[in-house]
């Protein structure tokens, strides 16, 4: 079979799939998503499979918001499913491009921008903790191959970070830079603006394992944080104390 004939066949297949998507109801997409993950529920669905809208997205017991999607039919020519997604909810504004290789399993999230509460991420993952913040995504992209992260870039800004328990403490804002190292998604602290100075990183793997390897010190020597941080151990030459944690989401 000549190369030209292969491309003509691929174009014909893509055209046929595009025709089906343009005419098929949006429930085709919502039903497939729910079948892939029983915790995911889309209601109030309208539009077509190609361009659709869900009036309410829930994950388990968590109400997320509304969802709009637009499929990228041209990616079918290179054996990829792709779509632009936009989520809107209370304190949530998020848009991103998602791609999934039809033969090979790689999933890529690209150009994710928006804002959402850290508490929502904690609820969705089932890993609720005593910290909340407003999370701002700035051009976040990463590629997931099975449980390994192969590539990551972009920045995550945590604004109005607070400890909620056992007492409420305001921690300020932090800027994290993303990268991928040895299959881990690594978020490195590059800026800290608040009463608690941090240096180091947090890393996450696709199987839910996470680790923190950081150093912390109080921005002011006689603040309330300086007494608490003494529990972390002896300070280094710069006054930072070790902060190492790990767990499983």
Key phrases:
2 domains, 13-stranded antiparallel beta sheet, 249 residues, 13 strands, alpha+beta
Short description:
The protein has 249 residues and is α+β, with helices and mostly antiparallel strands. The protein is built from 4 helices and 13 strands. A hairpin with a 4-residue loop joins β11 and β12.
Number of helices: 4
Helix residue percentage: 10-25%
Assess the beta-strand content as a share of residues.
over 45%
Q: What is the mean predicted local confidence, pLDDT?
A: 83
Task: Tell me what the structure shows.
With 249 residues, the chain is α+β, with helices and mostly antiparallel strands. The protein is built from four helices and 13 strands. The protein has a 13-stranded antiparallel sheet. Strand 9 (169-181) and strand 10 form a beta hairpin.
